[in-house]
Amino acid sequence: MNVVMKFGGSSVATIEKIQNVADIIIRKKKEASNIVVVVSAMGKTTNELISLSKQISKRPDTRELDQLMSTGEMVSASLLSMALIEKGHDAISMTGNKAGFRTKGIHTKSKIEDVKTKNLDQALSEGKVVVVAGFQGINERGDITTFGRGGSDTSAVALAAKLGFDCEIYTDVEGIYSVDPRRYKEAKKLDVLSFDEVMEMAHLGAKVIEPRSVELAKKYNVKVYIALNTADKKGTLITDGGNVLEKNVINNISVIEDVLLVSFNAHKKKLSDIFLKLAQRNINVDVISQSEETISFTSTNENEDIIAELFEEENISYNFRRDLSKVSVIGNAMRSQPGVAASVFKIFSENEIEFYQVSTSEISISYIIDKDKVDDVIRILAQEFNL
Question: What's this model's pTM, rounded to 2 decimal places?
Fold first, then answer.
């Protein structure tokens, strides 16, 4: 057995937790021939680093921001390697660059182009546990780049794909649930899911795994196991099989927070130009709706200043509605069972829950609502659909 193990920020938040992670790796070493470990920054380190940068500049230079943010994962990797060595197990830490991650795209949101595994292969052949700083690589100019939020998951799956290993992601929940158990305590854990099922959940806000990681796992057929960071309870296996979502009409409720609803007035002939300019500024646009006079779309709060700047340059009248969230209900059975949308609309109506936009896919329905209503909506939907 060969495996890539990934530990998130909450798993390495303190020295004590790092010591515990080292013990988990040592136990895994008894059954695994080769182990590569990917780590995130300790606890809230990345947020703290970003906060420091904002004290210098309202919009920090993105190259320098990548340099700064990448240091968090390097600290975790070094400390975990030290812990393993201290416990009598040969280990070596590597930056994303040293591990061979080659990237392309813009700073703070770069993508993995390739992983050159020469250094990894050499260390593994020497019997070492290799601890890699996640979330980072190096571009064609030799600059450090980062992969965006959840980028360490992407690092782990990419390594597993390149090395032909399985991938295990350890986090602060026992696996993937029907609802985030931190929001709804009665949520049910799902034992097996398919790539497609998890991809829908991840894109619609399930925080256990990053969407790009699932896409990468599906592309290269990498089995991904998500489990509690104590490694003592059964988690959720994601494979090309699994059909858990066929059993019920609705099987998951996912939430995306910090949603910004943008409404503006513009001539229809100008719309393509506006959305092109949004794309050129790397603004992701989600739900779009149109009335006779107004166009609305959702994005994220972090894009507010850039969107406002564009509309002011274009002399376009606009309005922002903040403090919103996107709540999605997901289930494969929506493909074949009519009336699901009607049932959800009825629930919203009976409970006097206002929504601003709604969108659908083949297996999901999503609503934009006030963020202070999210917990009530989750509870009502979970009880209605026995989640």
Answer: 0.78
